[in-house]
Fold:
Amino acid sequence: MCASVKHSSRGPALIPRMKTKHRIYYVALFSVVLLGLLATGVFQFWPHSIEASGDWAVEKRSAAVPVVRLPSDSPVPERGDLSCRMHTCFDVYRCGFNPKNKIKVYIYSLKKYVDELGMPVSGSISREYNELLSAIADSDYYTEDISRACLFVPSIDLLSQHALHIRETAQALAQLSRWDRGTNHLLFNMLPGGPPDYNTALDVPRDRALLAGGGFSTWTYRQGYDVSIPVYSPLSAEVALPEKGPGPRRYFLLSSQMAIHPEYREELEALQAKHGEAVLVLDKCTNLSEGVLSVRKRCHKHQVFDYPQVLQEATFCVVLRGARLGQAALSDVLRAGCVPVVIADSYILPFSEVLDWKRASVVVPEEKIADMYGVLQSIPRRQMEEMQRQVRWFWDAYFQSIKAIALATLQIINDRIYPYAAISYEQWNDPPAVKWSSVSNPLFLPLIPPQSQGFTAIVLTYDRVESLFRVITEVSKVPSLSKLLVVWNNQNKNPPEDSLWPKIRVPLKVVRTAENKLSNRFFPYDEIETEAVLAIDDDIIMLTSDELQFGYEVWREFPDRLVGYPGRLHLWDHEMNKWKYESEWTNEVSMVLTGAAFYHKYFNYLYTYKMPGDIKNWVDAHMNCEDIAMNFLVANVTGKAVIKVTPRKKFKCPECTAIDGLSLDQTHMVERSECINKFASVFGTMPLKVVEHRADPVLYKDDFPEKLKSFPNIGSL
Amino acid sequence: MQFWRRKSLWLALSASWLLLILLGASPLLRLAVSPRPQPATPQGWPHWLDAALLQSFSQPEEPPEDVPQPSQALHGARCSWGTCFDTSRCRDDGLKVFAHPAAGTASETHRRILASLEGSRYHARSLTEACLFLLLSQGTSAGQCGPAPHHWDGGRNHLVINLHPDSCPRASQLGQAMVAEASPRVDTFRPGFDVALPLLPEAHPFRGGAPGQLRQHSPHPSAALLALGEEGGRWHTASTHSATCPWDGRCEQDLGPKQDLSCASLGPTLGKSCPTPPSASSLADVLKPLVSSKPCSPHWELPFSEVIDWTKAAIVADERLPLQVLAALQEMAPARVLALRQQTQFLWDAYFSSVEKVIHTTLEIIQDRILGTSAHPSLLWNSPPGALLALSTFSRSPQDFPFYHLQQSSHPEGRFSALIWVGTPSQPPLKLIQAVAGSQHCAQIMVLWSRERPLPFRWPETAVPLTIMDGPRKVSDRFFPYSAISTDAILSLDAHSSLSTSEVDFAFVVWQSFPERMVGFLTWNHFWDESQDGWGYTAEMANEFSMVLTAAAFYHRYYHTLFTHSLPEALRTLADEGPACADVLMNFLVAAVTKLPPIKVPYGKLHQEAAPLAPGVPGSRPHPQPPDQDCINQMAAEFGHMPLVSSRLRLDPVLFKDPVSVQRKKYRSLEKP
Structure:
């Protein structure tokens, strides 16, 4: 309006000589139109914020939620069945085949339950339960189709048993449309039980329903059926704590809970008296001024501490059982990066089915509180820091929000239903930094394959038939050769007729390729039956039978490595600030050329299907460096160095361009260096390992009769 | 003019009105027709505008909860480790186990179990020093449980090994005792308290046991590996030697309709054609090449599930969804199949292949519970060589062991400690000390001066700390884990050994690549002697070798701990008797752990001739000495198998004896002819 008035004051330009009355009239009309258009626009393009089926305000909830009247004699489910296990009480058929191996979760729509007199029996939904259901609804697990669902989550808030009408809530559960004795229903509860005995599981009769509960004990927890979840602490979510690195902190041991049994408090205070400054036992404050939240303060004598900030000052923090086994203090402690010392006999720690709490906590029996200090002192510093990092990871991944808790719970159930697609121990437990840096060798079992298996030689060839035939003849003399595979990479020319090939004692197969690509040499051909593969170029005729046989023997002792003849090295060029390829006579080796190398056939599969980034295409496009790529791949996946066998040879033959001949070429060297830099950037690291040794026969060059040596013909040019 | 203006204004106005009506009418109409939201199910869980205003589920203002009395000791089914086991009794000496004498005649399996316990480092000779009491349930398949022993104490700190679980009623009678039995049901099993065992057949070997069947890493179409199968509700473990399934050949039979389908549909996945149900007759063929092992349904607790991560070795699937399993297996990545197969072999070999291993594993699990925070991490249980060979008393950090550097992305330390053993009367090995001290990797030199002679007055000046240690009497003392050894690597030497600095440097660099193996200069080879019908070994130069002499060898200091704390007394006594035996024993030990041969590095000819390196006590034998063949056979018997592995290679420097200028070579002194 203000704007319009301004315009009208400068009016003459637009509406000249109009009477004031008219002018007001027009301005009003325009304003109405403008406002109308604005409103429409907002309505059209931003409709969800105002009125969409998914957005409910408070009034709406009370008005739109259907009311369900529960007669007092409506059925009550059986009490929880303690013998329930996945294979007895869970209907897996509802989960059925699923290509993604992901369960489907349905959330019942919100209803309001009233008793016969119309009095509401279910409390309103808590902030956390709303968050939890939203998290499920936003996740991949969610389905709207009740008939496709495998798991059902009621929209009845059971997080706290406090102020819950037990019987009526149970009746409300029983009338859910797919209840069926609670089969495949998942109930969330964080604060179970009530005074005076505080049961460790939700008291609401729930028949076969799965319970995700905070505070299970060994005798209420149905191993492999229920899920133990943390007690969420709203306090930790509110307070911002700066991140603190691992290392010892000001207090060695801290107890911050307020409701502790006097007997235990006495024991803790005795510890404090004995160890002085290192131990701090806090209690609630008695003389706080008005307006200060008592939950945010803790006191020791007259000293006042901020909670949960004070937790960050301690290396170990006591989490003692209260009336309930599960304590929200555990979440606060994890939040602060303090290693929890859990003192709650028979307590099932949160997500203990998958999380390895030994790595992130210390469990002390209630009887042993007095010995606790000694136990903690005996933990070496390195292990303690490891625990702190682990605590941090557990908090970040599984505790920090209701969403994280909900998703971890569903993942655990998902893993049980699709165990073959389950998340591994390492994925659950290893912090990202460890996952990233650790190497898990695919051939980790130490074993020496039997010699009898032999090896398959794969010769990549284009059109050098004469040289190829010489290679075939030479290689066929090796005793352990079991098959020879020629990869014919020339699409314009047919391989020679069968009759022209050399006659050898082992099967010879020719594979014709569709495209002239270097990667073809590393394809996992079905014809390869042995584990050992010898990749050999069609011009490597200078290797003796002894040398090749010895190479195979070396491979048997190192089946997870590349075992090859010509060795190469990568170096850091300080001037250019990048990697450099080196083929000179050096004392070190980090690669072997696959022009003549033994390796496990599994690496063919890896090269063809698991090569990171665009390396494979780069190799095929440049027609170079397939061997360097293979060296990178094997070193990266195994974390081990290559083995170079036998002394250096001049890999040169008079009529062909051999590896060495080619390598000497300056542009070739530049190109190879480029490959190393390219691959290192794709892998994100330099996986190649430099070693100073090579493998020779035991008696090589020893003063011993040549004829008695197993491999006499080694290293002769 | 004015008219034209007014007209255009009117036009603009009416156009805007029209626009407004067009755009605004439809939503307005919608609102008018249905003023309340559709009762249809909302998309997902509704987003609440006032979510922030909702109350939290927990009221922090709640008055402090009533705190109950500390719990009392619990019984029977409610037992857990914290409540029913008194760890304070195990405080001083750690776990010590006493077995109650068996009443009546003991079966062969019972005898083997008791013998395994006696061979364990946790064995207690008397009732008083023990903190865990082992009771072999006498119940036979015929029924009836033996009477409780005198020192029963309500079952507290007792472990009942129940080989025939059906015969004895459970927890009610057992009080606070832990139960170790084969394949307990998941609903009676108390996790963290009971121990799940594999079923031990009568014929299960006492010691050693057959190695796994895996001879190659990648799948081979027709070999069953570690097989676990459900037969009448029990887990069997076996390594197959033939194409038949391991348990009583049932796999070859056709499945009758009466047989338990749960096993039927899962059996085949063990790798070989186990019973095939008519409904899924093609299952076996599809799975054979794919699967390593797959136990049946999850009714039963898997053996040692407390520590073994079965997801790494098995596919536990629900028998109710065989088709789904089938599909999943077909899609399984080759990498996973490869890993599963290898893991089954490792587990078999580490924990299952003999009665002794099964019993030792059981005790180790209980020891881990007592240790609490210093127990074996999961990694040590689930990767080679396994927790029985990776002593938690050595360290809890995996990177301190020689086996886990890859997983931990760590490296062995870049320095070594030289340990020189001076046995026979001789001059101080001055030249040797100088040569070793010259190595850039040497951190310290320790001389074990074992003679009763006075210490020599002068020791050479060295760049590294030189410590003289007095006192060792026995040969096996040279493998004692002296606390003064501060580095990962040990260079074990005899006073008579003669090495050059180059040799030491090169051997150490090689060791860094193979920290779990022994790297040595002089070698022996073992062989099967047909004429003697036993093992023999020779020091003669040969094309292969299987042992390196500890008179000059690098190895990880962990092997000192293993040698001293894990080997049975009998073996160490044997080593003390025949000095050469100590070398053999150390090689046996390392080979049994690594399953790999040691590594040989080049050794200059010259000083080999000048001062032959002799095994054990130097000088006592000429170089190609006639070794004591007896000890290798006794050791093979004690180990239950021959662990030594032969190698045919030697690791030389890259340019070793290559036709290139010596100036280019790093280890020049190795080049001398």
